[in-house]
Design a protein that fits this description.
The chain is an all-alpha fold. The protein has 10 helices and no strands.
Length: 250
């Protein structure tokens, strides 16, 4: 490629130096987005960024590193005091609220599925608990059918019909709990997406937030004693749907 047709990257253009084909900045700071490099250079310095990239293998590692640096620089410029810590603290606050709501949900569940089942570890599986509850409901029904087969007493038959109706209501209740769980999880995901979109509207650099940076908020909460692993936290958010439905039916 001739030098006349080779457009310098945003880094070399900003630093006013010749951009070669082997420039370490060129793949990650295109000329059409100069603000990305300006922010990174202002916070970290071009030489430090170059050292970081040279220490990483080309490809995915460098790309993730540049996106992380760009995101951190953007946060630091917007919030010179806290930077990324402000967003991480907000996520930690949301997680603490979720933990508190889950504890209250377990207390409510104890009245329906028993205290032992409600105090299971954080990887509580709502679908498994619902299946167990359905099995508990169906087992007495089968036993009752066998007991009433030879009986012709009208009063017992009426009681049997009433119990069947109650069991059907309980089954509908469990199904509604499961639907409420799915709706609540979807709402939580929409809130997270909306929160990220609000940041994206303020600056284009937020559109390149890597997955590792988003996970930092959750990992920081875990490191500070806020809960278990990421999978456990997701399972806890799903269990929180039970409490939401309990308040609505009341």
């Amino acid at each position: 490629m001739s030098s006349s047709s080779y457009a310098p990257c945003a880094a070399c253009k900003y630093l006013r130096r010749k951009c070669t084909q082997g420039c370490v900045f060129a793949p990650y700071f295109p000329p059409d987005n100069p603000q990305k490099f300006i922010n990174v250079h202002k916070v970290f310095g071009a030489s430090n960024v170059g050292k970081i990239l040279n220490e990483l293998s080309p490809g995915g590692q460098r790309n993730e590193a540049v996106n992380s640096l760009a995101y951190e620089a953007e946060c630091r410029i917007k919030d010179p005091i806290y930077g990324c810590v402000g967003l991480v603290s907000l996520l930690q606050h949301h997680l603490r609220q979720v933990h508190q709501e889950i504890d209250r949900a377990r207390q409510e569940l104890a009245t329906y599925i028993g205290p032992a089942a409600a105090m299971q570890p954080h990887n509580f599986n709502f679908n498994q608990a619902a299946g167990q509850q359905l099995a508990v409901i169906q087992e007495p029904q089968l036993q009752m059918n066998a007991a009433l087969a030879p009986a012709h007493d009208q009063q017992q038959q009426q009681m049997y019909v009433q119990q069947l109706q109650q069991q059907q209501q309980q089954q509908m209740y469990v199904q509604q709990l499961h639907q409420q769980q799915q709706m609540y999880v979807q709402q939580q995901q929409n809130d997270i997406v909306r929160f990220s979109d609000e940041g994206n509207q303020e600056s284009g650099a937020f559109g390149h937030i890597p997955a590792a940076v988003v996970a930092t908020g959750v990992e920081a909460e875990i490191a500070l004693g806020g809960g278990g692993t990421l999978e456990e936290v997701v399972a806890e958010v799903e269990a929180d749907a039970v409490q939401t439905y309990e308040y609505q039916v009341r």
